[in-house]
Amino acid sequence: MGHRPDPIRLRQGLYVSRDLIGGRQTDHNWRRIADRLQFSRVWPMAAFGSWELANDGAKTNGGGLVGDIVETAIDSTLVQAYDASESGGTWGYLATTHLRDGYSAEFQLFPSSPAQGDAVAFGSTVPFCEVSFDIGTPAVYDAAAVLAWEYSDGVDSWASLTLATDQTGATGQTGAYFAERDGALSFVPPADWASVAVGGITGYWIRAVIQSGKGGNMTTSPAMNGENPSTVSLGDGFPCPHGGTITGIRAIDTAATPHATDDVKFILMDFTTGAHSGQLTWARNQRQDAWPSLTLVVNTSDILGVLVTQEDSGNADPTNVMLELTVTPGY
Question: What are 6's strand-pairing partners?
């Protein structure tokens, strides 16, 4: 009988013959190849809970994250208020607005006499998708479209930001009635979001700015309840077992009735790096759907989660969804 090669033991307890990976490999090579075989190319990921816009509970009127959330106070240097009339326009920390002439309280989001160009900005060292607010003094508006939302797309350059939802608005949830109550706002992180300096502090920034001719329509300037806003992420997110590129997603809805009124839209978010899948559309009347052409690069132990950006208005939201992530391992 010929020589029977020794099997190679994989970490999962499986064994592979040397013949399968090339009989004349050196020990170093065949063990490296065996290690590669252990990497899974399909990751099962649970996104349990109801897939809707105001379900995660952040500051009561939450945003669209699916799962158990974690709220992390934004560093004081990354929350800045802008007074357009102060010395030709000046940024300053939100926590010290009570020390500025145009403000009357600490953590005041806009000057006491709001004017065109006044703004408040929120930043982070990595891209984010949801911010929560504990409002002490609610905003009062006597008109719509007072505020515009923007993101930093270059040095001293801002572009329009579309919010998925703004649950701090009691009158409406588009961002036009920001800070009327506690809650969270969420959005799809823009592809061209740039890390720039605002008030001398570098980060990825979004801002709410008072539009032309609308200063007098904010009749009460809102203030936080003695604290900075928080970024919102998932405490029960999916930890990537190894690095690689997610090239596809398949979703399976376990709800009793599939969403039938509207398409559901969402992103798969990497909360560690701020990268995401781009907005994906789950067609209505589909219990299962798939998105086969993605290029989301992830690292070992990165935390993944789902942010819903459009819900089913008929209240038949996907529930306790199972995801299958197709992965090309990185070596």
Answer: none
Q: Which of 206, 234, 262 is the last residue of a domain?
A: 234
Tally of CB atoms within 10 A around 39: 15
The answer to whether the predicted template modeling score (pTM) of the entire model surpasses 0.70 is: yes
- Among 188, 159, 163, 165, CA closest to 277: 188
Backbone angles phi, psi at 28, to 5 degrees: -60, -45
217 and 132, same structural domain?
yes
Q: State whether 137 and 211 are in the same domain.
A: yes
**Is 131 part of any domain?**
yes
Q: For 125-141, write each residue's pLDDT tens digit.
A: 999 999 999 999 999 99
Cβ count within 10 A of residue 329 = 15
256 and 176 assigned to the same domain: no
294: containing domain:
42-56+236-329
* Model confidence pLDDT, tens digit, residues 55-104: 999 999 999 999 999 999 999 999 999 999 998 899 999 999 999 999 99
Cβ contact 72:227 at 8 Å: no
User: Of 263, 327, 266, 276, nearest to 300 (Cα)?
Assistant: 327
